[in-house]
Amino acid sequence: MKRRDFLIGSAGGALALASAPLSAAQRRAEATAWEIGPIIRRRNYSVGMPLHPQIDGQGWNFDFPGPRQRDGHVHYVTRATGSLRDARGIRLRYRVDAQRQARFVPQENPDLPGAISLYIQRAGDDWLARGDGAFARWYSPNSRLQEITPGEHELTVMFDENWISVMGSNRERHPREFVETLVRAGRIGLTFGSRQSRGHGVYSTAPARFTLLEFAVL
Question: 191 with 210: CB under 8 angstroms?
Fold first, then answer.
């Protein structure tokens, strides 16, 4: 099956992003609020990807690049947020549609399974991970990493769990820094990579699509 035929065949099955129906304008605004990146010093690291997802039914989706590494890879999908000071966690529901032979490959660690992680970034982060910047990005705990597989999936991670910082520390060792990131949160979302490289990109060896069904701050 050609990639175009696969995408046409799977486009009609999206579920709602929220419980109440959204207008076309609201769906478009929701999709464009999300950014496929990250963009660091004018370079977008999600090679071969559009800047925003596309609307699909009541939610949004994007197609995994591939089938080769040089065709591109998706890294971060995030949106702006305010302070998460009073929040308790994040709930994600999504669906992956893929041809049977599709394999989701981390572009930096191709021998590991492709995986999804939840993500929080402090406002004003310079991406250098120096000094206090070593605690400006946090990823959901190792035990909560989800391998990318076809089907519908749900992931709920609370903020009292042991989130991982960008330089490999964790919330248990640095609780103050994690709380500071929640208070000063600037972006939130999900990343694609592997257990070793959380947001370093994934591609698919056959046509595949990611559809966001729900993303909720609890």
Answer: no
